[in-house]
Amino acid sequence: MADTTNKLPEGTDTTIEPAATGTTRATGGATSLTATDRSTDALVTTDEDTGSTSGGGIRGMISNVSTKARDEAAGRARGFVGDTLKSGSTTLGNISSLIGDTVAQIEEKLGPQYAGYARTASDTVQRYATTLENKNPDELVDDARDLVRKSPAVALAGAAILGFGLVRLLKAGMPEEGTRRDGTKN
Q1: pLDDT of residue 6
Q2: Region entry Disordered: which residue ranges (predicted)?
Q3: How far is CA 25 from CA 8, 16, 30, in A?
C-alpha cells in the first residue's frame, strides 16, 4: 500500500489505491478525479450507476476525429464531383454546339435525312448537358445506385470499359521497355 503520509507532488490531491486490493471508495465505485484530471479528458471513464468502465476518453476522441475526417472527405468529394459535373456539362454543351454548327454542312453534302440525325444528336447531347448541370452530386450517386440495381450487367460492363480505358491511359504515359524517360534507348 502506498505511503500517504509523504508529501505528494504538486497538483496531486490523493493517492489512488492499487487496483488489486479490491477496495472501493465512498464514491460508489467511481474513481475520484483531481483538479488536473477534470481539465482534460480522462482515459477511462466510469459509469457511476453500473460501475462499468469504457474508453470514452480516447475512444470518444478517436470516434470524433474519424467522424470529422469522414465528413470532411465527403464534403471534399461532393465539391470535386460538383466541379466535375459543371465541367462535364460545359464540355457536352460545347459538343452539342459543334454538332449543331455542322448541320448545314451535313445537309449540303449528305442530305436532309442525315442533317435530321445530326440535329437530333445535337438536341440529345444538349439535353444531357442540361440534366447534368442541374444535378447535385448526391442525386448522381443515387442514379448510379439505381442503375446498378436495375441492370448490374450494364454497370459491370461499364466498369470494365472504364478500367480498360484507364489502363490504356496509364500505359500511354509510361515509357516503353528499353527506353528512358527522355525517349533515348538504353
Answers
A1: 60
A2: 1-61
A3: 20, 10, 8
CB 59 within 8 A of CB 42: no
pTM, full prediction = 0.45
Cα separation values, 156 from 56, 81, 143, 153, Å: 43, 21, 15, 5
pLDDT per residue over 66-83, tens digit each?
Answer: 888 888 888 888 888 788
**Backbone conformation region of residue 22, classed left if phi is above 0, alpha if psi is from -120 to 50, else beta:** left
Query: Hey, what's the cell of 70?
Result: 469522414
**Using CA atoms, how far apart are residues 130 and 88, in angstroms rounded to an integer?**
10
Q: For the stretch 82-96, what's the b/e string if a residue is b when 16 or more beta carbons lie within 10 angstroms of its beta carbon?
A: eeebeeebeebbebb
